[in-house]
Amino acid sequence: MKRILILTFLSSLFLLSSAQMPGFGQPSQVADYKDENYAGDDLEAHRLDIYIPKNLQTKPKVVIAIYGSAWFSNNMKGMTFMSVGKPLYDAGFAVVCINHRSSGDAPFPSQIQDVKGAIRYIRAHAEEYGLDTSFVGITGFSSGGHLSSLAGVTNGLKEKTVGAVKVDLEGNVGGNLDRSSRVDAVVDWFGPVDMARMEDCSRVKDANSPEAALIGGAPAEHPELVNLVSPINYVTDETPRFLVIHGEADTVVPHCQSEYFSAVLKEHGKLESFISVPDGQHGPVTFNEQTFKAMTDFFIKESQRNAPN
């Protein structure tokens, strides 16, 4: 029941956000490649859609986009394009909207393994789809912001150990292990990034929280997993550049999450900007023309920074 209530709540927020978006109510863009399975199995959770801009002179560079669902959904990729994906498509990027396993399907680190498997798949099949993977950005909102951020801060890191707990961050979903799962830039939309301070900006949440479902136990009883699931603990001088966006009136993911994360990113010289949106909620108001433009401008800038000389 808790999962149904959260998904209903998130869907309502999305619809409110969409009503504020330019073009809402017009026919949805049709994916050029729909329900491609990046893992070689029959799971809905392992499907992705690819949207390729038309009339380009060159192959488009790529941005992976991930939905928010408190990690409870394994099939919301269509929502992703209708929110953060469409502005990227209009800016000339190929947008890859991916599903991933929910916390009910499998606990962490399965979700980040799916994300990395999808990235490797896109690189392995870039020629087939007509994509330029010399630049691969990633973005997502809410739990999708968490997974996007975790993908960025774990570039090149196959596993990590904290105390007696070791997690396999790379995994082998879909194979293609000769291809990189690295990303070149990240836009984090109000993602939970420090699970040790999700409750009142100071402590872990309880055993009934989405984070508990994600790690498979009460956060207070699993401090090592709380550390390992939190992107804030992985930032280094090798981390790609980030743009962080969060609404000041967000009652789902505390605004302080992005404050903490931005401070650490800035310390390592990896923060492009932290956009704090007055009156911005968990989607509504925070999603707007200015923040969408900031996202696309950032990815354009970073794709040019990464362009071969």
Element layout with pairings:
Blueprint lengths: L1 H18 L13 E5 L9 E5 L9 E6 L10 H14 L3 E5 L11 H15 L1 H4 L2 E10 L1 H11 L5 E4 L2 E4 L16 E5 L20 H6 L7 H6 L12 E7 L7 H13 L3 E7 L11 H17 L4
Parallel strand pairs: 3-4, 3-5, 5-8, 8-9, 9-10
Antiparallel strand pairs: 1-2, 2-4, 6-7
Helix pairs in contact: 3-5
Put simply, the count of helices is: 9
Low-confidence stretches: 4-9, 11-27
| N-to-C order of helices and strands | HEEEHEHHEHEEEHHEHEH
How far do the termini sit from each other?
54 Å
Shape: globular
Helicity range of the residues? 25-40%
Notable characteristics:
single chain, alpha/beta, 9 helices
Can you walk me through this structure?
34% of the residues lie in helices and 19% in strands. By secondary structure, it is of the alpha/beta class. The protein is globular and about 50 Å long. The model is unreliable at 4-9 and 11-27 (pLDDT under 50).
